[in-house]
Amino acid sequence: MALNNPSVFLLMINGQIEGANFPDYDDLYCKYCFVYGHDWAPTSGLEEGISQITSKGRGSPQRLVWNFPLEITFKSTNPFGWPQIVVSVYGPDTFGNDVVRGYGATHIPITAGQHTRTIPMFVPESTSRLQKFTSWLMGRRPEYTDPRVVAQGEGREVTRVRSLGFVTLSFNVVTKDMRKLGYDNTPSESTHTMHTHSAATGLASGEQLYST
């Protein structure tokens, strides 16, 4: 009976953090974590991870490649708080200190299938030139104590940030029992046309949530 009337639906994600474009930096690594609502719970896979350090290749002097795998399954009773992935990129500064090179976040795609997302990255900025020089000299750049704040809206309007680069992710998304619980996440023809037009005009909702 429980099989015919499920009480939760499943969201299964696998993919990879493919790489990044940071023209001014090299020898970078990334960390990721998932942020989700109170009704969501992971059932398998890893909620966070850290990649290897990668350097730019001769054939692609602007491209950093990680191909770092992602795999996780969530269960939930409603779509509110749909999972987001937060990516943080780190690398050495002039003095060899590990400093943050970018934060970014995007929602996991709602529809099943293969998806690619390019996340614009940013870093917090010091509020004065003196603080900026001091943090550069001491190797202690402004950074968030918890990167998950990137996926939240509270307080973001008072944070001064600077854009730096982009990170590209690919997802394979599978959902189970959403329709049985009354949720239809299959893309319609009009929705596909709308998203295509939005992407062409730079308004893809999944990529601009935290682009400022």
Structure explained in plain terms:
The chain has 212 residues and is mainly beta. The protein has helices at residues 129-138, 189-200, 205-208; strands at residues 9-21, 29-35, 41-45, 48-50, 63-76, 84-92, 98-107, 113-124, 161-176. A hairpin with a 5-residue loop joins strand 6 (84-92) and strand 7 (98-107). The longest helix has 12 residues, at 189-200.
Q: Can you summarize this structure?
A:
By secondary structure, the chain is mainly β. The chain is built from three helices and nine strands; from the N terminus they run ββββββββαβαα. The strands form two sheets. The protein has a five-stranded antiparallel β-sheet.
Layout of helices and strands:
Layout: E1 9-21, E2 29-35, E3 41-45, E4 48-50, E5 63-76, E6 84-92, E7 98-107, E8 113-124, H1 129-138, E9 161-176, H2 189-200, H3 205-208
* Rg, nearest Å: 19 Å
Order of helices and strands: EEEEEEEEHEHH
Largest sheet, spatial ordering of strands: 3-5-1-9-8
Total count of helical runs of at least 4 residues? 3
The best one-word shape is: globular
The main pleated sheet reads as: 5 strands, antiparallel
The percent range for strand residues is 35-45%
Number of strands: 9
Mean pLDDT: 82
The separation of the N and C termini measures 48 Å
Unreliably modeled segments: 190-212
Q: What is the helical fraction, as a range of percent?
A: 10-25%
Look at the helices and sheets and give the structural class: mainly beta
Any key phrases for this structure?
single chain; 212 residues; mainly beta; five-stranded antiparallel β-sheet; 3 helices; 9 strands
